[in-house]
Amino acid sequence: MALTDLRKKITDRSARIGVIGLGYVGLPVAALFAQKGYDVAGVDIKAERVEKINRGISPIEGNEPGLEELLAGVTQSGNLKATTDYQALADRDVVLIDVETPVNDQHVPEYQALKSALKSLGGVMKKGVLVVVESTIMPGTMRQIVKPLLEESSGMACGEGFFLGNCPERVMPGKLLANLRAMSRVVGGDSSETSAVMKDLYQQVVEADVDEADWITAELVKTVENAYRDVQIAFANEVALISEALGASAWRVRELVRKSPGREMLLPGAGVGGHCIPKDPWLLASSVRNKNVDVRLIPAARSVNSDMPRHMRDLIANQVGDLTEKRILLMGYAYLENSDDTRDSPSEALRRLLTEAGAEVVIHDPFVEEFTGDLYEKAGGCSAAALVTAHSEYKSIDFPLLARSMASPILVDGRNLWDKKIVLQAGFVLVRLGDFSQ
Ligand code: SAJ
Description:
The protein is α/β, with parallel strands linked by helices. It is built from 17 helices and 13 strands. The protein is elongated, with a radius of gyration of 24 Å.
């Protein structure tokens, strides 16, 4: 089917859509297209996830406004059906790929999930299909890996037998649906005609700009925007370390620096976690690993940020002395406040460092099933407690009760969450990351 036919089916919403990977990205996007009236087939390798979705229940934990209701509606109407069987994609006009793209210890993506999805899709997809990779990929991946793999597995030529695009996702846990609607998207096609059809497709669900580009530009936009954020956070963290050494408060410095135009300094913190920021800078840096580009800033920023849990360990050790057999409470295990998402959690890195130093680590997190429970009970016998994730619940701690519960009243605030006066009045020694002002 030529692109013109496909364009018509997209705009009259008779196009049949497939989505591979029903996680944080794939599930909301499948539900949104289904809500617009498209027939959507979602494919995922996890049978229990498929089963839950077909019952109209979201397998995504945490608070995702509107997702449960939306999912219930589109599964009830039959517009969205989930399955583990790739055969369901055989009659699709459009297939979106939303599988994970982790990097290995050498910070290079291996693409197991992506390659498997492309092989399985190629084996069933029909002539004229538009395939769009939404997963975040290393710049160059569309040309070097996706196109040849899909041509080989389908036996068809890109641009003739099928059309191929990259439209990087821009989701954020806790705002999945809102972001899908409100954030602009870049659509990179194998040709400008394909980019134009992709624009028609995404304009059905995106209320913001849909900007046309080529593959390499689309791949760069996503990895650059997250590397940019990582570098900004690293800068704030380095200012925190400098401020501590000089007996100043990086938080006060930041507040005043931000008064100067164009200085939107970000926040120091106990660490940088999540599925995007720790990974995407490496996807960008590794895109030129075989070219003579001396990429120094991006890896340096990664090193500063991934060392923040070690700094938190040092702040704790400076107060409690030898960590051997000391009981330490970590408040917050999710990588982001008021979320249950624990991927690449700085708390896990800190737990490991404290355990290696001989400490007994107790973890509390109101959002993470494994670590819920009574905070004050968990604080029992602890020589110190460290705030790693700024969950709102931790703003209203009963500090006198917490002090009475602990073996020694030492608090390390890794997110500048607590009011110094209130904490000191409760008899605590308070160490605030980035703030050694008197
Ligand atoms: N963090 C800091 N200091 C800051 C900001 C964040 O230490 O000033 C830490 C957070 O505690 C967390 C990590 O960095 O551990 C990542 O936080 P994030 O706010 O960047 O949240 P993410 O990981 O959900 O990032 C997503 C990204 N969105 C996409 O990839 C589509 C990112 O591009 C967005 O900028 C970010 O959400 C956002 O703005 O909320």
